[in-house]
User: Fold this.
Amino acid sequence: MINVSNLIKKFGDFTAVDNISFNVDKGEIFAFLGPNGAGKSTTIKMLTTLLDPTSGKIEINGHSPQINKHEVRNSFGIVFQDPSLDDELTAYENMHFHAVLYKVPNTGLKERIKQLMEFVELWDKKDVLVKNFSGGMKRRLEIARSFLHHPKIIFLDEPTLGLDPQTRNHMWGYIQDLNKKEQTTVFFTTHYMEEADRVADRIAIIDQGRIVARGTADELKTQTGTQSLEDAFLQLTGHAIREEEASGADRMRGAFMRRGGRN
Amino acid sequence: MTTIYIMWLRQVKRYLRSKSRIIGSLGQPILYLFALGYGLGQVFARAGQGNYIEFLAPGIIGMSVLFTSMFNGVEMIWDRQFGFLKETLVAPVSRFNIMLGRVLGGATVATLQGLIVFVLSFAAGFRLQMHNPVLYFFLAIVFMFLIALLFTALGTAIASMLTDFQGFQLIMSFVIMPTYFLSGAIFPLVGLPKLMSFITRIDPLTYGVDGLRGALTASNHFALSLDFSILVILSLIILSAGSYLFSKIQI
Assistant:
């Protein structure tokens, strides 16, 4: 479903993704793990047509993200690290907006939206403006939205970041159910190792742009002679803390805090 | 087509829902209408230029349209930072349609804002001087929309090149304010020093305000056909440049 070979992305002199290759099969749940700045998000951006690679080959559902952008975009749904909902629209309007953009046929659309929103337990909040939603509710809505157009693949970039264990558990429940029900391939990143251990069929660990290990959680533990995936991860990637450049959003949040908040 | 429509609808819905923003952005034009209108009215009349409010109101309408449309365009930085832009950029639709829908939505909103100021200007003593009210009112809306289109496209084009709001103050100081003050919105274009006269002529808003003045009070400086053509041509140029910049956005 996802085939990547010899993928390289350079920003100036800096090599963010350094010659990685991997493949993800249909219906598989695949975890892509690594410390901050390892190249996870850059890889996801290249897989999802947002960024062009320096070199290498990518196939998403048989299409190249550089050449057949629209086919690729039709093939996947994505939940980004930061929410990508429109705060001034209601939950239902956000879903409907997505359906129009993805040209989901009108017949049965209402039922589809209802079914997905009931699934993430937000149907009773369908007419609430998203700006009144908590972080967890936004994530749930985004998950429902990412499945709306029946994608073959779902990309989840740290989907459970900042959520409490209850919400995280529920979220993985939804995702695993949908993965079974709709045979959707799932590609996700996370910093919570026990999550990857529990839900991922296979795992790849990336560090400084290179894939340093891959296999099932058990294989990685055996390979490193450790008891938990977290220990295996630390052994493979080292204990040093990684610095990451502030994103634009981080800088803006800082600027607004200095000014005393938005509006 | 549906992409353009849904992007347009989104902009309009956002506008209609932000009541505080609608009211807030009326403060400035009201202040200008009353403070300048009454403050300078006497001087203007004594200089033999006639009724200042009548002269000023189309300029202030133009200003509101300019401000609203530039803000609407530049607001895209917000979408970019807080994610919503990504949702549209990974969708299987052409980026040109996304941008066009957004610009048309922003332009519609700015035109509505201009219409509100138009109505408010009557409270400040503005009266129409039109031979054929229906036709000329329609013409005024056309000019408001053209100003709106041009500057929403410009704002969007600028926003496509920026990743955060740090540059916003620069845009305010070096694009929006000069465009307003050097457009003849608040002073007549006759008898200006050579340099000033030249600057007003390269300011696109000059032709927008002049068009509004022609439509509302039959006191245009240039030919209305010239105002119209310049606005249309500039809008098309900026829209093309903007769609190019928008298509190059990488997140």
About this structure: Chain B touches chain A through 29 residues (CB under 8 Å). Residues 133-161 of chain B form the longest helix (29 residues). Chain B has one domain: 2-247. Chain B has eleven helices and no strands.
